[in-house]
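TASK: fixed-backbone design
INPUT:
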């Protein structure tokens, strides 16, 4: 799995960090980031739900190699 956040789309709503706090956080400006070492989702079953929770669709979750 590969996770990416489009910084040009993210509005800092924080829904991803609330849904999957083991994978997502917010930076000092309030924008979402994937935690270091968690770019593959870290096996967290809530990653896809966190992506769906993003109100602007800034998070992309894809299978590796896709």
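OUTPUT:
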């Amino acid at each position: 799995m590969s996770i990416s956040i489009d910084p040009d789309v993210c509005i800092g709503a924080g829904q991803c960090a609330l849904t999957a706090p083991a994978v997502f956080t917010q930076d000092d400006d309030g924008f979402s980031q994937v935690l270091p070492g968690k770019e593959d989702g870290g096996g967290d079953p809530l990653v896809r739900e966190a992506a769906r929770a993003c109100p602007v669709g800034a998070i992309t979750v894809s299978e590796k190699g896709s």
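COMMENT: Residues 17 and 25 are 5 Å apart (CA to CA).
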